[in-house]
Amino acid sequence: MDFLEEIKRRRTFGIISHPDAGKTTLTEKLLLFGGAIQEAGAVKNNKIKKGATSDFMEIERQRGISVATSVLAFNYQGKKINILDTPGHKDFAEDTFRTLTAVDSVIVVIDVAKGVEEQTEKLVEVCRMRNIPMIVFINKLDREGKDAFDLLDEVEQKLKLKVVPLSFPIGMGYDFKGIYNIWAKKINLFSGEAKQTVSEGVEFTDVDNPELDDIVGEKAANTLREELELVREVYPDFNQEKYLKGEEQPVFFGSALNNFGVKELLDCFIDIAPTPQPKMSDTRLVDSKEKKFTGFVFKIHANMDPKHRDRLAFVKIVSGIFKRNTNYLHVKMGKKMKFSSPNAFFAEKKEIVDESFPGDIVGLHDTGNFKIGDTLTEGEILEFKGIPSFSPEHFRYVNNADPMKSKQLSKGLDQLMDEGVAQLFTIDMNGRKVIGTVGALQFEVIQYRLEHEYGAKCAYENLNVHKACWVEAEDPNNDEFKEFKRVKQRYLAKDKKGQLVFLADSAFTVQMTQSKYPTVKLHFVSEFK
Ligand code: G4P
To answer: What is the pLDDT of residue 52?
Structure first.
């Protein structure tokens, strides 16, 4: 197969949802169709178990599993599908945001009874801002849930999407009879007994055909006819171009657990979902079809084995062919590197590969050279944009609790920050270190990992910070900026890249500062140019 065909057959995407909506179950069913696993239950559930004795111990357990589930790849009808795992736990939202920089599209899973939940809103917002194509899968139709039209309204309003139903349920919960697949013009009937079997849809192009009454019963048939009529009146016809631009979102209904509506989703997905997309760098747009290799690190897994300092950097290939034992330029370090055992990911295993194509993810063994966001090229000086840090929500001073181990502590902190576990700020005035995290859980994780992986001990001290604001001065030499720096010096810090950050103690402070120093812009994300 030639290079362009390899690109054309790739679909790299992520599944996002609020925890418990059915992301793991759907992933598993997709793998079943791809023949990548033989039975349901094979994909280890890497979400944080409810009622676990200690949340952070559970995270450690989960970290072990999540290397295996970080990228799940399989072939389906000639297409190479790469599913990138996104943690559902809200304390790990930042991991998910970073993974979303490496996907070409997403599937959003929504629980039919719960509707749009908080985590879904946040994640969809990120995708919407980046115009990532999205397909919505409304799950758990075997349960009593919200009315389909109400749900579609909710999705439009809360997620600010423009939906186009491509399937429609026939009944729901106890009365759930099946699905009319608007996309393929087929009817799929639901049978509660055949839980793991794949139901083939029956071709049914004309719902006015009286045969429909025999299949689903007169009442359900009439309701379906009315509802489909309404769908036609209210929603536009599907337009692939708009979907690819992130301007409209097709919706499927189903039940992942019962394997219902999943194949329909997958079949449509491989038809319409985008192939590997171009990506913006600081100098130019890089197209996947370019011959020369480029890629960037979006995730780092470290110290899975405490006896070896092992790190695996996950690189998304943007263009060209990544080859084993070939010299590539680590742009930020200005250093040539080659990799003798790059890993490619399959359903649940990784294998050393000689070549990988755009859209694929390779895992590179690393001894501490990589940071999240780093770019690799064949020599061209460019860096991919779009992996910003967001302002953390929780802040604490970190102190050394074992004076004999200060070196270990700073090394440990350094490496954990490279991995993206949290963000480190250094206060300008006194050099004290502040850790900022998305969730409170990370503080425990950091303390635990520092001790177990680096032999260092840390203690925390509270610090009243509302948001970290990255500072952009219109003119670094004007008096206003100098005044700002003088008045706020106690609250100024540097992030890991040396960018100036203002640690504001309240929303009010942010507002006041902004109006007092209009030429000094405050940003809640690190990338603003
Ligand atoms: P997540 O990854 O989004 O967090 O969700 P996950 O797939 O783990 O699913 C959450 C729960 O919802 C699981 O039940 C799962 O079996 C159930 N579920 C998923 N899809 C469907 C569906 O279509 N219908 C129904 N009725 N349930 C569904 P659990 O009891 O929490 O876990 P388990 O004991 O079944 O593993």
So the answer is: 41
Q: What is the mean pLDDT of the chain?
A: 87
In ligand 1, the atom with minimum distance to the C-alpha of 143 is 26
pLDDT for residue 48: 42
Q: Which atom of ligand 1 is nearest to the CA of 255?
A: 23
Q: Out of 26-35, 67-76, 409-418, 444-453, which region has the weakest mean confidence (pLDDT)?
A: 67-76
Nearest CA to ligand 1 atom 32: 20
Domain spans in the chain, listed from the N-terminal domain onward: 14-68+85-91+104-272, 279-377, 394-523
Among 265-279, 282-296, 443-457, the least confident range: 443-457
310 three-class SS: coil
Instruction: Indicate if 394-523 has the same CATH topology as 14-68+85-91+104-272.
Output: no
Q: Is 433:398 a contact under the CB 8 Å cutoff?
A: yes
CATH architecture assigned to 279-377: 3-Layer(aba) Sandwich (3.40)
Ligand 1: centre distance to CA 359 (Å): 29
CA dihedral 391, 396, 400, 405 (to 10 degrees): -40
Packing angle of the helix pair 441-454, 406-419 (nearest 10 deg): 130
Q: At what angle do helices 441-454 and 55-69 cross, to 10 degrees?
A: 70
> What average pLDDT does this structure show over 51-80?
69
Q: What atom of ligand 1 comes closest to residue 25's alpha carbon?
A: 7
pLDDT mean over 191-212? 66
Question: Rounded to whole angstroms, what are the CA distances from 288 to 102, 134, 187, 285, 408?
Answer: 13, 20, 38, 10, 41
pLDDT per residue over 237-249, tens digit each?
999 999 999 999 9
Site residues for ligand 1, CB cut-off 6 Å: 17, 19-25, 45, 47, 88, 139-140, 142-143, 255-258
State whether residue 434 is helix, strand or coil: strand
Q: Which residues contact 249 (CB under 8 A, 6 or more apart)?
A: 108, 133, 134, 135, 136, 161, 162, 163, 164, 243
Domain 14-68+85-91+104-272: assigned CATH number? 3.40.50.300
- Dist. CA 163 → ligand 1 center (Å): 25
Residue 45 CA: nearest ligand 1 atom is 8
